[in-house]
Write a structure and sequence with these properties.
Elements: H1 11-18, H2 31-44, E1 48-52, H3 55-66, E2 72-76, H4 80-83, H5 88-93, E3 96-100, H6 109-115, E4 126-132, H7 145-157, E5 162-166, H8 169-176, H9 180-184, E6 189-193, E7 204-208, H10 210-222, H11 231-243, H12 248-262, E8 269-271, E9 277-281, H13 288-297, E10 303-306, E11 309-313, H14 320-335
Parallel strand pairs: 2-3, 2-4, 4-5, 5-6
Antiparallel strand pairs: 1-7, 6-7, 8-9, 9-11, 10-11
């Protein structure tokens, strides 16, 4: 339960990969990749999609496209783009990130408005807003469609484009009862991943206008993301969309069950999960690294998020019984007397 990225392709997904129709996607197109791009663009309400090997590459391509060198991009202070993409925005696109401290669980329109600098010849100007939905660092928190629309309104007042890091947008849609398009329509570009809740081994799509995706093709090539017979990967993503999207609610139910089991154990406090990520704030005297090691010895694998917080993620390969077992193990470890 370290992450929803640890899932293994199901036998049916492996068959879909083995039987995929393929071509050379860089030279003249791969038919299965084209089908995936078309299906995802339609689901997101965009003109065109472009298949990438990773969500990080797709995020960085969007920043390259939409931001201007020597400017700053505004995003939640705990965003994946800031903390887990190896300073790619600075190294590749030549922009600095301006972390927006959220007033609640995640950045909202009010926090964004307050972070935009007044115009000055001494300060960098902003050129892009990025939103993460669901928000990994906040515990899989969802920004509903109204929240995205409010952020869009602030960005419009300041003439800024918006990119949506939707690595887990599928989870956000299921949790809110919205369609993915409801959440993606207000933004210029959106990235969605297939290697998390949908259970594919690899892959993401960046979607936006046809013109933007034509430019993104060149950026992807420049970053080394052009793939050849990538239909074998696109087939896995399509299978995930067709067969695993409809069960994401199960992961959310499992996360709530785990959270309820662990809440209060030994003084621990759980961030109530919106989706499939559970953040557990540890009681005094319990360190995350030691707890993670002890849990691993009992066959439960979780992630240290900070010195005092651990992350637990439910996914396709974790059944209700596994969740119950993990909850019991964590409770026993949290409540055992200090050595």
């Amino acid at each position: 339960m370290r992450s929803d990225t640890v899932t293994k392709p199901t036998p049916a997904m492996r068959r879909a990969m083995a039987e995929a129709e393929v071509g050379d996607d860089v030279l003249d197109g791969d038919p299965t990749v084209r089908r995936l791009e078309s299906v995802v663009a339609e689901r997101l309400g965009k003109e065109r999609g472009l298949f990438f090997p990773t969500g990080t590459m797709a995020n960085q391509a969007a920043i390259w496209l939409l931001a201007r060198r020597g400017t700053e991009i505004l995003l939640d202070a705990n965003a994946h783009i800031i903390h887990w993409e190896v300073a790619g925005a600075a190294a590749l696109a030549g922009v600095q990130v301006r972390p927006v401290p959220p007033t609640g669980p995640v950045m909202d329109a009010s926090a964004l408005e307050g972070a935009i600098r007044p115009s000055s010849i001494h300060a960098p100007s902003a050129s892009l807003v990025c939103v993460e939905n669901t928000h990994n660092g906040a515990g899989g928190k969802v920004t509903p469609a109204a929240g995205i629309a409010a952020i869009r309104a602030v960005a419009d007042r300041h003439r800024l484009p918006v990119h949506l890091d939707g690595a887990r947008l599928w989870n956000a849609a299921v949790a809110t009862g919205s369609t993915p398009a409801d959440l993606a329509l207000p933004v210029e570009t959106v990235m969605v991943s297939f290697s998390k809740g949908l259970g594919a081994p690899v892959g993401a799509v960046l979607a936006g206008s046809a013109a933007a995706m034509a430019d993104a093709w060149a950026v992807r090539k420049r970053l080394g993301g052009g793939m050849r017979q990538s239909g074998v990967l696109a087939a896995a993503a399509l299978h995930g969309l067709e067969h695993h999207f409809g069960r994401l609610h199960e992961d959310h139910e499992h996360a709530r069950a785990f959270a309820a089991a662990v809440e209060g154990a030994g003084g621990a406090r759980v961030v109530p999960p919106d989706t499939n990520i559970v953040m557990v704030d540890l009681p005094d005297g319990v360190g995350a690294a030691a707890l993670v090691r002890a849990a691993a010895e009992r066959g439960v694998f979780i992630t240290p998020w900070s010195n005092t917080r651990v992350r637990v993620v439910t996914h396709l390969d974790v059944a209700a019984g596994d969740v119950a077992t993990a909850g019991r193990v964590l409770v026993e470890l949290l409540e055992r007397p200090a050595a």
